[in-house]
TrEMBL record:
Protein name: Uncharacterized protein
Taxonomic lineage: Bacteria, Bacillati, Actinomycetota, Actinomycetes, Pseudonocardiales
Species per Swiss-Prot/TrEMBL record: Pseudonocardia sulfidoxydans NBRC 16205
Length: 202
């Protein structure tokens, strides 16, 4: 697995611009450790700093590209993980994308129009479906959860977003300014691709 320094740099491939606090939330690392790792990464030229936010630089991407094959060698050699990823891509990931589209738009008179979220029953049905897909995802990704605790953390964060959406905070379905289901799912998917050495499907 990645050492704490490279894990911090890696987090900037999942959240492409973030504060130390936001990066610590993604990985669960102590904030002080993330801050120290970022300070070193900036000095190394691996990470670029803009006031209190950070983004990965070309040197950081090269460091990760060189580290991934060794750090994730066992994961990439696992048949169970390969099968889990196949099931993830062809199943739950497709379902999440479809449900996100259904959340953002709805069919009216045979045409797709923006969802104004005026139909509480329509929205509640989608959140319920998202929760069922979330439960299924935990089963599909079980081999990856066993191999990398960060995968389980992503699933927990998606569960937290769903709880807030169920409580009426609708931004937590697909909002970009909060850790919504869609935002955290995107981060998790990117992490899975980097773990397994796969490309994002078209």
């Amino acid at each position: 697995m990645l050492d704490p320094y490279l894990l911090t740099v890696h987090t900037l491939t999942l959240r492409q611009l973030g504060t130390a606090e936001q990066l610590a939330e993604v990985t669960g690392q102590p904030l002080a450790d993330v801050e120290a790792n970022l300070e070193k990464a900036v000095a190394d030229g691996a990470v670029l700093a803009a006031k209190d936010k950070f983004m990965i630089g070309p040197t950081g991407r090269t460091q990760l590209d060189e580290a991934y094959p060794t750090a994730f060698a066992d994961i990439r050699a696992s048949d169970a993980i390969r099968d889990a990823m196949d099931a993830f891509e062809s199943g739950v990931n497709v379902q999440i994308l479809s449900l996100t589209t259904d959340w953002q738009t709805k069919e009216v008179g045979g045409e797709r129009v923006p969802n104004d979220h005026g139909d509480a029953d329509y929205d509640a049905a989608i959140v319920d479906k998202l929760a069922r897909v979330h439960e299924k995802t935990a089963r599909v990704l079980a081999p990856l959860v066993a191999a990398d605790p960060l995968v389980d953390r992503f699933l927990d964060r998606i569960g937290t977003a769903l709880t807030r959406a169920e409580g009426g905070e609708t931004d937590y379905v697909s909002g970009v300014r909060v850790d919504s289901v869609h935002t955290v799912w995107f981060q998790m998917h990117e992490h899975l691709l980097r773990l397994t050495g796969r490309e994002r499907p078209e």
